[in-house]
Amino acid sequence: MACKYKSPFAFRLTVSRHSVLRKYVLEDEITPLPTGHSDILEEQEPEFCSKINPRSPFTSMMVAHDCRLIMGPGRQGEVFGIVALLPDERMNEDPNAKQSWVSEGSLEKMLDTFSEFPDWIISIFKHSRDLGLWQLHDINPLRTWYRGRVLLIGDAAHAMLPTQGQGASQAIEDAEALGAFFAEQADSPSGEEIGRIFEVDVFRSRHNRAGLIQAYSRQAAKPGTAKGAKTVTM
């Protein structure tokens, strides 16, 4: 997504992981990195959730060696959502294939992947109405977030895995920093002044923190247990 801040300043922000402007800013093509994991998005009616109250406003997680389930209610308890994190090879997916939110996952492969999980959770999968697949990507910390009057924020600047739930939060922090550093600008600043604020203020104040959370998010995506063990070590 890109948005333009019109007055009193003229510059362009871009926040998407699939940012077109990132190539302009860096003068180089940065390809989001496959992480070897994919999200399966599943919606299920509450009656199948016999062990967890789907109307309770909290998120539950079940962890195995190299796969996990994150579950929680939606639509005021009318549906129960499950995000399943698992290695790409368990789904036989092509990591170079074009991804979209409408890519279909394989229920048979999912049942096989989670066969060691309790029967009550497996029974939910079998009643699934909709199984979607989304491959997870992130990027390494970028050397800069700006060029001229163009500034990258959010996923365009520091795409990260969803394991810490920090993607949107970091975009908000970027925007807050941007607003704070431009708050004292009463008149339209010059291109040089905008560049100075982008580099000295916004980038230097945000780059290390965002990069650290990128690293934490990658760490949290690693196997939750030693192979063959039942003790969670993540």
UniProtKB/TrEMBL annotation:
Annotated keywords: FAD, Flavoprotein, Monooxygenase, Oxidoreductase
Keyword Transmembrane helix: no
Pfam families assigned: FAD_binding_3
Chain ranges of the FAD-binding domain: 142-185
Gene Ontology terms, MF aspect: FAD binding; monooxygenase activity
InterPro entries: FAD-bd, FAD-dep_Monooxygenase_BioMet, FAD/NAD-bd_sf
Residue stretches in coiled coil: none
Xref: Gene3D superfamilies: FAD/NAD(P)-binding domain
UniProt family annotation: Belongs to the paxM FAD-dependent monooxygenase family.
PANTHER family named in the record: FAD-BINDING DOMAIN-CONTAINING PROTEIN (PTHR13789:SF314), MONOOXYGENASE (PTHR13789)
This protein's name: FAD-binding domain-containing protein
Highest classification ranks of the organism: Eukaryota, Fungi, Dikarya, Ascomycota, Pezizomycotina
